[in-house]
Design a protein that fits this description.
11 helices, FAD/NAD(P)-binding domain, globular
């Protein structure tokens, strides 16, 4: 009795681990040459994009611990997030936790009792609305704290982002250590994907890359076979399928499935590092305001820039994107005294544009695709999570939920 997982992104990997722990045989089929999905490593070793976790992401951190990769995720800025505001050149630090805002040096711009109350209301079960207009009375707090939080967590412009989805994030940030920020020390390949695949294979799972599912063959209201084009896999009475593919692929395989209607891009720029020297082994993470760059991740081997909700950046050519981004991040690096050389001329750059990185999280009823579209078919993926935005945490939770659903339906 085997569960065939289609898609080896984070949801598929988390589902596979959960099924192995439940005693099920697992086979993973991935269309691309490598596992990881949107959390993959690129051929040159860099990440497709910067992915950060918070202490509140207990499912994701628990998954990392289960695959032996937790120590690879480090806290780059334990003393507060360094932020450079290009509007006026002010460099400061911001604590992500409201409990630290008693220190004036760690307060976000525009903080007031009224602004804090307005933000806290998002955590209440109120009618959904767009975040930006709801905080219009607190423009500096919106610009300096809420906007960066929204684009990072929801990948949707603040003017149209769902307050209900933001509230789901805020409700998770109240616990001890919930706002601690973690990033992969070496990268998503060595600190997430490789250990996940290794853990699955060590548990007996079979992994096959370059295998795109062409068609689900159904018979009698169940999946009877998996058509991969050059070969097919027949399913026995105790076998099942867990579909952990992007929404457009899931809809191709299940035409009547409801999927998100709109998507938002993320643009990432990866700069080669120059002039490395002593003291540069520390990973750093910076934020920028009034800038093209939103987040800058500095590792010894390279610098990565993330532009979330990047509709305009996705349309811009690399020839203009890279110099603009380098000039901004160079200002931030110099403002905070980062080690190494930061020349005016930009180093070699690789631009990665994920044009459908996540659904646009707009106000309104959440999409609720069926967990079990067929008796022996479960659905997973960050886009299927009805409460949280599409993140690593949502992907892990969805994979684990789909695994539980299938395990409960299959014969023991």
């Amino acid at each position: 009795m085997t569960v065939h997982i289609i898609g080896a992104g984070v949801a598929g990997l988390a589902a596979g681990l959960a099924l192995l722990k439940a005693g099920r045989a697992v086979a993973l089929h991935e269309a691309s040459p490598q596992a990881g999905g949107r959390c993959r490593a690129l051929p040159d070793g860099t990440d497709n994009g910067t992915h950060a976790l918070l202490g509140a992401n207990r499912a994701a951190l628990g998954f990392l611990a289960a695959i032996g990769a937790r120590e690879g995720w480090v806290e780059p800025e334990p003393d507060g997030l360094p932020v450079l505001d290009l509007r006026d050149g002010r460099a400061f630090r911001v604590a992500l936790s409201p409990f630290a805002w008693g220190d004036p040096a760690l307060r976000p711009p525009g903080l007031s009792a009224g602004a804090l109350l307005a933000l806290a209301k998002f955590a209440l079960p109120l009618p959904d609305r767009a975040v930006g207009p709801a905080l219009a009375a607190h423009p500096e707090f919106l610009r300096g704290f809420v906007d960066p939080l929204v684009v990072a967590a929801l990948n949707t412009p603040v003017e149209e982002a769902s307050a209900r989805r933001l509230g789901a994030v805020l409700r998770r940030l109240g616990g001890r250590g919930a706002t601690r920020l973690f990033v992969a020390r070496r990268g998503l390949g060595p600190d997430l994907v490789a250990p996940a695949v290794a853990a699955l294979e060590a548990g007996g799972a079979r992994f096959r890359a370059g295998a795109r599912l062409r068609r689900l063959v159904t018979q009698g209201g169940r999946v009877a076979a998996l058509d991969f084009g050059e070969d097919a896999v027949a399913l026995g009475p105790g076998d099942a399928v867990l579909l952990a593919t992007p929404p457009w692929e899931s809809q191709r395989l299940l035409p009547h499935l409801e999927t998100p209607a709109a998507y938002a891009p993320i643009v990432n720029l990866h700069f080669a590092r120059q002039g490395q020297g002593p003291g540069e082994e520390k990973v750093r993470f910076l934020g920028l305001l009034a800038a093209l760059c939103q987040w800058v991740l500095v590792r010894p081997e390279g610098v990565s820039v993330t532009v979330s909700a990047g509709d305009a950046a996705a349309r811009e050519e690399q020839e203009s994107l890279a110099p603009r981004a380098w000039a901004e991040l160079r200002r931030a690096a110099l403002a905070f005294g980062l080690a190494g050389e930061w020349p005016e001329a930009p180093p070699p750059c690789r631009v990665v544009k994920e044009r459908r990185a996540t659904p646009r999280h707009l106000p309104g009823p959440a999409l609720r695709p069926p967990l079990l579209p067929l008796p022996n078919l479960a659905l997973a993926g960050d886009w299927t999570e009805p409460v949280l935005p599409a993140t690593i945490e949502a992907a892990v939770l969805s994979g684990q939920a789909a695994a539980r659903a299938l395990h409960g339906r299959l014969p023991s």
